[in-house]
Amino acid sequence: MTEDPRGDEPGTGSTPLAHEVLELLAASGGTLAVAESVTGGLVTSTLVAVPGASAVLRGGVVAYASAVKHLVLGVDLDLLAVAGAVHPDVAIAMALGARDRLDATWAVATTGVAGPDPQDGQPVGTVHVAVTGPHEVITCRRHLFLGGRAAIRQAAVHAALELLRDQLVRDLTGRSAAASTTPTPSRRPRA
After folding, report:
1. List of the chain residues with pLDDT < 50
2. Minimal CA–CA distance to 144: which of 164, 163, 122?
3. pLDDT of res. 94
4. Per-residue model confidence (pLDDT) at position 177
5. Predicted local distance difference test score (pLDDT) of residue 8
């Protein structure tokens, strides 16, 4: 058996994308909180499968029931009653709540329908992924994945890590561009 140079244990569920996300978080000095509904802990599990994840991962909350979304993450009860749990605003509220409660600089959240039946008027495969970060970064994407429960949940994990990675890259690129274009005060010779 060949040892993985990254130190992964066989079958742990770690992915190159999870490695990349954690490296970007470390490079930015950021920390991460995760709030999960449809993925039921798979995003957090994928991240903790990477050795050294504890350097940036603050924790994860599995908020499968709407009451837990409200009680633990602070999602508004009226929003849940009117929109249902499978809604972009719920995903955003989950991410904001996780970031706040776990004292992280970044958060990612998932909510959706893995099936077998539709929920809240949303078809099976509907997933909302939200990312919140510093500098008022709030992004949410809607996906419609095909397949059974396992395939939908795995696709949601990938979508969550991909959206987080993209936002981290934008943040790091934006900061380095701002640093390189910030005017440096020049010294004028004294007359």
Report:
1. 1-12, 180-191
2. 122
3. 98
4. 61
5. 41
**pTM strictly above 0.85:** yes
Among 113, 121, 186, which Cα is nearest to 155's? Answer: 113
Reading the block at residue 55, the tokens are 């350097």
Cα–Cα dist 13/188, whole Å: 59
Encoded amino acid at 65, one letter: A
Angle 50-106-21 from CA coordinates, rounded to 5°:
30
Residue ranges and CATH numbers for the domains of the chain are 16-173 (3.90.950.20)
Q: What is the 3-state secondary structure (H, E, C) of 13-41?
A: CCCHHHHHHHHHHHHHCCCEEEEECCCCC
- pLDDT for the residue numbered 179: 55
